[in-house]
Each structure stands twice: as C-alpha cells, then as structure tokens.
Amino acid sequence: MNTPDHTPLQRPEDERLGLPANVMYGFQHVLTMYGGIIAVPLIVGQAAGLGPAEIGILIASCLFMGGLATLVQTLGIPFFGCQLPLVQGVSFASVATILAILSSGGSLPSVFGAVMMASLIGLLITPVFSKVIRFFPPLVTGSVITTIGLSLMPVAAHWAMGGNAKAPDFGSTANIGLAAITLIIVLLLSKLGNATISRLSILLAMVLGTIIAWAVGMTDFSRVGDGPTFALPTLFHFGLPEFNPAAILSMFIVILVVLVETSADILAVGDIIKTPIDSRRLGDGLRADMVSSVVAPIFGSFTQSAFAQNVGLVAVTGVKSRFVVATSGIILLTLGLLPVMGRVIAAVPTAVLGGAGVVLFGTVAASGIRTLAKVNYENNMNLIIVATSVGFGMIPIAAPAFYHHFPSWVATIFHSGISSAAIMAILLNLLFNHIKAGNPDEPSVFAAAGSTRQADPSSSAEQTNTPIKSLAH
Asked: Which of 194, 226, 260, 393 lies in disulfide reach of 417, CB 3.0 to 4.6 Å?
C-alpha cells in the first residue's frame, strides 16, 4: 500500500494534452480499430440477407454505439466506466453465435433480443468478476497480454494481404508491398528525434500509405459522395427484439467470454500505463461493457467490448490520456451521424492497416513479455504455467478448426485465444500457487529450466502472485 509521500498528484490517465493533440491521437485510435468495428456489421448484414443500404445503416449504428460506449468507459459515471484509455466497439466474439442464430431460422430481432437479455444477466454477475483481481498477478496478466498480441498477428497479416480473401488481388505483391511501405514509414517516423512525430507515427504512416495507394490506383475516393451526408440513428430500425431462450443461452456464453477478455484488457492497459486497478475499478469497467451491450440493440448494434488493438496503440505511442480516447468516442459518434465521414475512412486500404498492425499488435506481445520478466521462476511451477497458458491460447490461432467437432458452447468459449489463455492461466495459477497441497519441494524439470533466469534475490513466489494493482504503484 502506498504511503501519502508516494501517492501521485495525478493519475497517468488523467493527463490533459489539449484539443489539437486529443483530435490527432484520437483519430489515430479510430483508424486503428475502424476495420474491426465495421467487420461485424458487414458479416452479419450479409448473413441476414440485407441490401447495401441496410448494411450501411447497420455499420453506422455500430459506429454510433461504439462512440457512446467509449465515452461511458473513458469518462465514467457513478458505478460505470473504469476511466481508462480503452476504445469500445462491437465485439467480434459474438459473430459465430449470431451467425448460428441466423442460420437456425432466427432473425436480426432475435439476435438483438439475445444480446439484450444475455448482457443484462452479465450486468448482474459483474460483482463476481470484479472480485477476482487477486487472481491476476503478473504471471497471469503477462501470459494473457502476450497471447493478445500473438492472437492479433493473423489479423494484421490478413489486412496486409488485402482484407478480402475472395478478392482477386488478395495476397498480391502490391498489397503486401503497400503494407511493407506503411510499416517502414512507421519505423522511420519513430526513429526521428521529434517526440510528437514519433507518437503520431501510426497515424502519419496511415495517411502517407493511403496517399501512396491513391497515387498508384490502389484506392478510390470517387464514391465518397454517394449516399446521405447526415443521418440520425433510428431506434429499433430492424424491428423490436424477440426473446428466444436458446438464443439467449448461447449468447450468454459469449458474454462470459467478453467479460474475461475485457477483464484482461483493463488489466493490460492498467499495467501499460502504470496505474492501479482494484476490484472496484475493474467492476466499473465491466459494468460499462454490459450496460452498453444492453443498450446497443436499441440502436441496431451488438455486444460491446474493449478493442485489444488499441491497447497496443497505447503501448506504442505512450499516450496514456483517457481524454484522447474519449475524443475517439466523439469521432465514432460523429461517424455514426455522418456516413460521408465513414466513407472517407473506409477508403483507407486494408493493406495500410495491416502494415501498421504489425507494429501495434507486436507491441502488445512485447508488453506481455516485459510483464512476464517480472515473474520469479525459482523453485516453483511458474514456467510451466506460462508455457501451458500461452500454448493453449495459440491452439485456436494455429488451428482455427480445432474445436470444430466439439459442442458449440465449447467452441464459443475456446475459439478465442485470449479467453483460452486467460482461463488456463487463472486455473493453473490457482492449482500451483494458491492450492499448494501436493506441490513437491523440488518441482519438475520446468522449474529447473526457469532457474537460469537472473532473478532479483529479493523476489519470491509470493511476490509473483502479487496482484497487478501493486505492480502499478
């Protein structure tokens, strides 16, 4: 516990950078997650048989709701919002379940009803999740953060190849070359002595990459003027929600996954910016997620969660201010109200996002490795916990069809490498470090392998299990 002498006058996340910096850095966050937030309504809209105009409305709804959810999470209201630089948006974890509901005869209203009810149940159980903070020491959070970064690398590779596997130029040297140029620009701008340019390297690289793409004919802005410039969201545009018990149950499994992943993201960003995360703050963040997900179907959106790729952006830029991300929320709201702005950003080539994604997602993994370096591996089973957790998290990444023949609820939980690693790390940490009965005095060869580490003589197994809160002080 900190003494008054060591209490900071201002939390890192409360730094105020001014309007111009907020807009620039906030726009950088939006560009980073834009491809992810529009992917879900694109996939769901096509599966539901919607036309282009209706899919456009679905995309605008998801952008608008993402903005609202981000403002609640970053600025906070009593009992809701962790006040951390976390960008919120529609969760990709729900896609498989939504498609299953649609393919089994359900409709979009039944999907919205399932999201609404399952999220309400999730809201009621958040006190349970917020109390598990002591089971998230650096051993667990480091494993999960590393897995977050590694699990996002296929996304970066897919973007670098063009983003659309059915497109004739998918994986072309032109797309990969554009991604490589963007990556090189990021590195060169980061090398410059100017701190502001270095922090804006991702945004500037995306802008320059898009200009290069336009110059060589790899992007087209001619259709930016098509469609309305301004449009208010319509409540229940796709119909009133329908409540199907089976759909609600399957969606509730998704909500459990979202709660695990959001917990990991909150703890990860807390560790990156060096701010304490206690059970109350974690609970406020989870409640913001759940209440946003309850409200989302009203506007035509789906489950909301924190975007892991933006955690990487915080690590890359070192910009810790939650007000920067709140500005991202305002930009997302604006994009939801101004479809023309969304069409401008949609013209940014996916390959450009892929080049930037290599740095962003790799930085998340590197942050996890840095956290794992704080762990003591002497005379304990911590090395095997890390090895098994990260390895288990990589299974659905290396073999996406691994759980294809398992019951759907198993596939829903473990199709995400992030939730797989989190569950395994928590369980193994409990088994070996909290339930110590049966642990040998001389652990297995895995402990011996870890003993080569030059550990701080003052470290101990007990310190290894210190919650992330104390590390952040």
From this structure: 393
